Amino acid sequence: MVTRTSIAPSRDVLRPMGQQTATFPAYSDLAPRLCRVGSHPEPMVAHLMATCSGYAYADEKVVAMIMARMGLEDNHCLLVAEAVDAMFIRSTAYLVQSADGRVVILCFRGTEPTNIVNWLTDADINPTRVPISFPGRPGAFDVHGGFYRNVRATRYEVAAALKRALGGGSVTGDGDMAHPLEALYVTGHSLGGAMAAITALMLTTEEAYASIAEKLRAVYTFGQPMIGTPELAAACATHRPLVGKLVRYVHRRDVVPQLPPTLAGRFAHFGAEYQYRGPPGGERWQSGPPTPQMGRVLDLLLTPLGFLTGQIRALHDVPFRASIQDHLPHHYIATLTPPGVRTEYGD
């Protein structure tokens, strides 16, 4: 069953309790700026998308509040979700629409740390053969079954909301906006990043979504696992509607971008990858080659130990190849916050 709730936050959320001076928003004139961005990655957009992805683990009130603090004041926020435990489905999407209607951010929630169904979804790697019609290259490709099922669970509700925005309406269905949709951004962390990538692929290859795909500006993912085979990745790399629009961020030794492991079959990334290899406050994000699949079962088994050593300062530099600690969304937000820009907390 799909649940659908909406909220339009007041500007009161922009002022922390007891504070008399204006602290927010972090970015002024954010909607017009998002419409003007010409190439990606762009630091402001990366910061905004990382923040939205991190807070997608909360409810719609928190998402609306945080995005208002970032600069989308009086946004319209729609939650679309479906949960079917027996099907390993925990699909949650937020659509955050600017007050003027020109910008929509579609953000997918990632793997919830305490939700066993989410972890089973990630582990449900048996591929699903999916027909994908790339221009001049129709065919079928193997896609991660759990990720694909979760996208399918909510895609019609999500597409309906985006089509309302295209027609000048609110994503929530509550009235009209001043402008129709002009710029669509898609994002997510972890499982949410995989769902964002699959959604972008659907939008740009299925004729039913062509009008929405025309508004797609960029896809930003954080700690995203691989979604399909090397053959699919190669096709996506030359798919014009996605070229230059899909950006993946990998923080240090984050284990999730290395998954699924090779014992599960052949998988590969696509899109531009940016890596943060230094300690907090060290080197900034750098373009790098795609993260390869994890090849050794031992590395996967040692990942929890890497998390424990990450809590001990003296052991920070122990060279585990994979880390759960590095996957946490607050690391992505912290390292992608541009110098001099206020955080979502107002500092």
Walk me through what this model shows.
The protein is an alpha/beta fold. The protein has a single domain, classed as Rossmann fold. The chain is 32% helix and 21% strand. It is built from ten helices and eleven strands. The protein has helices at 30-36, 43-55, 60-70, 116-123, 145-166, 191-205, 210-213, 230-237, 297-310, 329-336; strands at residues 2-7, 76-84, 89-97, 103-108, 127-134, 137-144, 183-189, 216-222, 246-251, 272-276, 286-288. A nine-stranded mixed sheet has the order 1-2-3-4-7-8-9-10-11, sandwiched between helices. It has a two-stranded antiparallel sheet with strand order 5-6. Strand 2 and strand 3 form a beta hairpin. Helix 2 (43-55) runs antiparallel to helix 3 (60-70). The longest helix has 22 residues, at 145-166. The protein starts with a strand and ends in an 11-residue tail after the last helix. The model is unreliable at 16-21, 116-121, 305-309 and 311-315 (pLDDT under 50).
How is the secondary structure organized here?
Elements: E1 2-7, H1 30-36, H2 43-55, H3 60-70, E2 76-84, E3 89-97, E4 103-108, H4 116-123, E5 127-134, E6 137-144, H5 145-166, E7 183-189, H6 191-205, H7 210-213, E8 216-222, H8 230-237, E9 246-251, E10 272-276, E11 286-288, H9 297-310, H10 329-336
Helix pairs in contact: 2-3, 2-10, 4-5, 5-6
* Content of β-strand: 15-25%
Please give the CATH class. Alpha Beta
Shape by Cα distribution: globular
Radius of gyration: 19 Å
Major sheet, described briefly?
A: 9 strands, mixed
**End-to-end CA span:** 40 Å
Question: Which superfamily, in CATH terms, is the homologous superfamily?
Answer: Alpha/Beta hydrolase fold, catalytic domain
Mean pLDDT: 86
Helix and strand run:
EHHHEEEHEEHEHHEHEEEHH
Name the strands of the widest sheet in spatial order.
1-2-3-4-7-8-9-10-11
Runs with pLDDT <50, length 5+? Answer: 16-21, 116-121, 305-309, 311-315
Alpha-beta content class:
alpha/beta
> Oligomer, anyone?
single chain
Question: Based on the structure given, which CATH architecture is correct?
Answer: 3-Layer(aba) Sandwich
Q: How many DSSP-defined strands?
A: 11
The number of helical elements comes to: 10
CATH structural fold name:
Rossmann fold
Tell me the domain tally.
1
Q: Report helical residue fraction.
A: 25-40%
